[in-house]
Amino acid sequence: MKQSFSFIIALLCAVCAQAQTETPDTISAQELGEIVVEAPKVIRKTDMDVYHPSKSAVDNSKDGMQLLRNLMIPTLTVNDALGSITAAGQSVQVRINGRVASIEQVKALLPETIKRIEWIDNPGLRYNGANYVLNVIVANPTLGGSLMLSARPALNTRFGKYFTDIKLNSGKSQWSVGGTYKMTDDIKAHRDYKETFTYPDGHSLTRTEVPLGGSVDDNRASAWLTYSYIKPDTTVFYVSLQGYRNISAQENYKGLLKLSDAGSDILLDNGNGSQGTTPSFSAYLEQHFPRRQTLVVDFSASMYSGHSYSDYVERYPDATDLLNDIHTYVKDRNQAYGLEANYIKNWRSSKFTAGASYTANRNRSTYENLGGDVFHQSQDKAYFFAEYFRMVNKFSFTAGLGAQYTKFHFRESNQGNHSWNLRPQATVTYAINSNHRLRLGFTSWQTAPSLSETNIAPQPIDGFQWQTGNPNLKTSNSYMLNFRYGFSLPRINGTFGIRAFSSPDAIAPRLYWKGNHLITTFENSDGLQNIVFSISPQVEVIPGWLTAAGRIEYRAERMKGTGYRLYNHNWSGNAQVMLAHYGFILSAQYTKSERSLFGERISWHEDISIIDLSYNWGKWQFGAGMIMPFGKYDQGSKSLNPYNTNVKHMRVDLRVPYLSVSYNLQWGRQKRGANKLINADASVDKSTVGGR
Questions:
Q1: What is the pLDDT of residues 72-84, one digit of tens each?
Q2: 216: left (phi > 0), else alpha (psi -120 to 50), else beta?
Q3: What would the mean pLDDT of 534-556 be, rounded to a whole number?
Q4: Nearest-angstrom CA–CA distance, 31 and 50
Q5: What is the DSSP letter of 18?
Q6: Which of 96, 140, 143 is nearest to 233 (CA)?
Q7: Measured between alpha carbons, how far is 502 from 476 in angstroms, rounded to an integer?
Q8: Quick one: DSSP state of residue 88?
Q9: Do 43 and 50 contact (CB within 8 A), yes or no?
């Protein structure tokens, strides 16, 4: 990892030195008859960075995900093999023409129709608390159709991704139907785990788990049917019906527990998983009025029917009797509904936006392990905001205020909570020139407690531990101050940023002893604060051939709660290199996940590497690659609680070679998807069971 970061820093220094003697802009040309229009590769706007795909990036892509990967946007990590888009280890809200979209919908985009990418790293109030926003702007040509097919099977295990999408255009209407299937079936895995329990009287017990094997499943499928009607500058109507099936998501581990008190070794069989179906419906209307006024309304609904489980079994190697036999099984029948409306008024150098939204969740959980006990929870959220944007010479200002009302209630116990929370936000941007821009922004948002954090149903975890929710939790507040400097030099562009974050009442786990059992519940803590420094360059090492990009990040943080005050700091980041020529693309990617502190636990997402080689031939693309060609897959956590100190590493045998093939057939010209400016939230809740 250090070598990768050193490589990026060396490139940064070398090209910055070269920038003193070269012409000021790297440009791409687009011919319109006798006229040649030249535009910078990256345009720094007041509230976003705009990337225009080059002809080579489009020609070497067969779908939207491949195009995003080939653009190599600094900060952004596009993992086409695993189907994910992240930035600095955080989730990215993806949109198509302003409409919130899924990874599958981005993949279904034709690269030829993508005109620009808007990267927003300081989203406003209308994005409702998103960390980052990636908005893909698609053109609106005339009639046509397309058929897209792709497959990526593994060569040594049951792992792969399969995708299809058909679009048919007729006048102002477009129909789209498609589906995707992801298979991760019985992938070999093991767990490195060591824990120490310290009892109230001071004596302790350490248990070291020697792995004896295990497996991971993640099989899922989705399908969609959408219809859109677009009358340019007047009316947009969009409706979609989607279905998602979690076929099997589970982890199973076997181990031998060695005890520090010289007790006999114990065989452990531990697993957890979930399965379920989520159909959803969405309807959207956008109407334009005179004097640059727009009204947009969105409705969405979803349902979830499924179950989650956890099994924990202990026994002596030569015994038939079980020491611990714990099974948790929860059935969910949950619903969610969302309605949102926005009013937008534009002037020459300013804009006013006001909106309101309402989200309702109705959850029914049946605990089979508790004799079929049923728990009903209702949650309601209402959100109102107003935001004003103004440009004055080289400065631009955005200021707004939101207010959120949250209420949740348990029918059986008649317990619950409600609260009002304000959400102020402000941003000021100074354009030094077209290639250099400074931005200072303040934003805030709220996080409502989840179903599992508030559900009072007790869940056994193992022979020592239980988990139960806290119905008295309050919605937590988060505040962030963000400074960002964006630069574009002849062969390098990127950003430098400093981000300060505070959540003074963050919802976090709390552990305490009750008799011989260690109980995990949840509390509004005394707060999480962190500060993050980052630099994200993209370097054209050999223009048109070799490009390198990456991100280096340093974070320092502090967390306080009942009985603890903890500190954490670490380096993280990613590195990407892409060599493209003669229709071939060779790319390599490595990600070192940040180690983040929350509650009394430091956790990290996957450290992963990927190498991929593809070749474009007409409507076809053929490729081969490997997941984890170097390094060791690692995903885990470290508990710092004095009652239960533990370290867990999940190791997956993910050194997977694969083949890939894509086919892209088009006729006529392709019509864009609906320009959906807002998205009503109807994210359905799901129960999660406790686990080691």
A1: 887 788 877 777 8
A2: beta
A3: 91
A4: 20
A5: H
A6: 140
A7: 11
A8: T
A9: yes
With contact defined as beta carbons under 8 Å apart, do 685 and 379 qualify?
A: yes
Write down the residue that tokens 């051939």 correspond to. Answer: 545
Q: How far is Cα 131 from Cα 383, in angstroms, rounded to an integer? A: 18
Instruction: Give the Cα separation of 247 and 219 in Å (integer).
Output: 5
For residue 615, how many other CB atoms are within 10 A of its CB?
Answer: 14
* Ramachandran angles phi, psi of 131, nearest 5°: -70, -50
Backbone angles phi and psi of 475, in degrees to 5 = -60, 130
User: Residue 125 — φ and ψ, nearest 5°?
Assistant: -65, -30
CB 276 within 8 A of CB 306: yes
Q: pLDDT confidence of 682, banded at 50, 70, 90?
A: low
Exposure on the CB side of residue 389, measured as CA atoms within 13 A: 18
- Three-state SS for 441-506 is EEEEEEECCCHHHHCCCCEECCCCEEECCCCCCCCEEEEEEEEEEEEEECCEEEEEEEEEEEECCC
Distances (CA, A) of 312 to 377, 459, 613: 27, 12, 43
Which run of H or E residues covers position 576?
A: strand 564-581
Q: Please state, in angstroms and rounded to a whole number, the distance separating the CA atoms of residues 32 and 36.
A: 6
Selection from 416, 400, 312, 319 nearest residue 128 by Cα: 400
Neighbours of 582 (CB within 10 A): 6
SS3 554: strand
The CA radius of gyration of the chain, in Å to the nearest whole number, is 26
Partnered with residue 103 across adjacent β-strands are none
Tokens of 501: 């974050």
DSSP 154: B
Cα 290 to Cα 234, 293, 349: the distances in Å are 10, 6, 17
Which residue type, as a one-letter code, is found at position 666? Q
Q: Which residue has the tokens 């040649």?
A: 36
Q: How many residues does the chain have?
A: 692
pLDDT digits (tens, 9 = 90+) for 384-394: 999 999 999 88
- The pair of structure tokens assigned to 434 is 């077209």
Can you tell me whether residue 525 is helix, strand or coil?
Answer: coil
Using CA atoms, how far apart are residues 123 and 103, in angstroms rounded to an integer?
Answer: 20
Strand, helix or coil for residue 83: coil
CA distance 354 to 400: 9
Q: What is the 3-state secondary structure (H, E, C) of 595-648?
A: CEEECCEEEEEEEEEEEEEEEEECCEEEEEEEECCCCCCEEEEEEECCCEEEEE
- Specify the residue for token string 């919802």: 507
Integer Cα distance of 164 and 180 in angstroms: 6
Least confident of 24-33, 245-254, 381-390: 24-33
> Which residues is 465 bridged to in the sheet?
518
Q: SS3 for 364-411, per residue?
A: EEEEHHHCCEEEEEEEEEEEEEEEEEEEECCEEEEEEEEEEEEEEEEC
What tens digit of pLDDT does each residue of 398-447 get? 999 999 999 989 888 888 888 899 999 999 999 898 888 899 999 998 88
**Dist. CA 248–CA 154, nearest whole Å:** 19
Angle, vertex CA 20, rays to CA 14 and CA 21, nearest 5: 105
Contact 95, 135 (CB under 8 A): yes
Q: Is residue 56 within 8 Å of residue 544, measured between CB atoms?
A: yes
- Say yes or no to pLDDT of 671 above 70: no
Nearest to 351, CA basis, from 394, 396, 387 = 387
- Look at residue 21 in the predicted model and tell me its pLDDT: 33
CB 384 within 8 A of CB 406: no
Q: Which residue has the tokens 């609904």?
A: 301
In the numeric block, which tokens belong to residue 410?
Answer: 């348990």
Who contacts 514 (Cβ-Cβ below 8 Å, separation ≥6)?
Answer: none
